[in-house]
Amino acid sequence: MTKLADGLRKWKNTRCSVVVVAGGSSRRMGEDKLMMDLGGMPVLARTLTALNACSCVEEIVLVAREDALEPFARLCKDYGIGKVTKVVVGGPTRNASALAGLTQIKRDAKLVLIHDGARPLVTEKVVQDVMHAAAIYKCAAPAVPVNDTVKETQGDAVVRTLERSRLAAVQTPQAFVPEIIKAALTKAVKEKREFTDDCAAVEAMGIPVRLSEGDGENIKITRPMDLVTAQAILQRRAGA
Fold first, then answer.
1. Domain span at 220
2. What is the CATH number of the domain that holds 29?
3. Would residue 214 count as lying in a domain?
4. For residues 57 and 16, is the Cβ–Cβ distance under 8 A?
5. Half-sphere exposure of residue 202, counting CA atoms within 13 Å on the CB side?
6. How many angstroms separate the first and last alpha carbons of the chain?
7. Looking at the domain assignment, is residue 90 inside a domain?
8. Mean pLDDT by 10 residues, the chain (240 residues)
9. Which stretches of the chain are assigned E, i.e. beta strand?
10. DSSP assignment, residue 88?
11. Would residue 231 count as lying in a domain?
12. N or C of the chain: less Cβ packing under 10 Å?
């Protein structure tokens, strides 16, 4: 594909829908991490506020546990997150929850992004870069280099050391042509296969995924130390 064709496709695809998956159990945190305070706001509010501020985001569909529907809807109202058009109940698995959100986006959406509710430090650049990559290549995900040496293990034994230069840590949002990701997740749910990220479901169908530039600060809040790190990043950004 020529640079001119790439440019034209980017120009034609400057808007997207976003599905935010926020239905996890937060077992490793001991409480609902999405409602924990991060710089004076709940983690989820920061995630949604960041996406709401992106000029390319047209709508946000929020996927939640049934018991969180009302609190999350109230959170959107309290923080003026106007692009959240629907708050819907997720499924029993991550893939089923993402699929539940995908069924609620606009029918004429050209591109859809799926984002973890626990990644509150996402930037507009990461969003736009992955959206433009998907506009050209149909499926894309932001990624950053792996800095640590990674070893494949079996129990406590090392099987082999993986070549670090060929590894990447993948983040969200991940971006797709809607028909492709809907088909991939529908197949995964039907076959009761669970993938740790949405791109893996696409890859299982033999469809290639393109990597866009991620951001080392786009961390996922999983453990208590992640909140400390996220707070430090927010303070640095405020002082920049």
1. 3-224
2. 3.90.550.10
3. yes
4. yes
5. 23
6. 39
7. yes
8. 56 82 69 92 98 97 96 97 98 96 97 98 97 95 96 96 95 98 98 95 98 98 96 92
9. 16-22, 37-38, 41-42, 57-64, 84-89, 112-116, 139-145, 151-154, 157-161, 168-170, 174-176, 210-213
10. E
11. no
12. C
Residue 198 CA to residue 114 CA, distance in Å, equals 8
- Helix or strand or coil: residue 189? helix
* Assigned token pair, 217: 């600060």
Kindly provide the b/e burial profile for residues 6-23, where b requires at least 16 CB atoms within 10 angstroms of the residue's own CB. Answer: eeeeeeebeebbbbbbbb
Say if residues 10 and 132 touch (Cβ distance below 8 Å). Answer: yes
Q: What is the identity of the amino acid at 192?
A: K
Structural domain includes residue 230: no
- Count of domains in the chain? 1
One-letter amino acid identity for 15? R
CB under 8 Å, gap of 24 or more: what pairs does 130-134 form? 130/173, 130/174, 130/175, 130/212, 131/13, 131/16, 131/56, 131/175, 132/10, 132/13, 132/212, 133/175, 133/210, 133/211, 133/212, 134/13, 134/175, 134/176, 134/177, 134/210
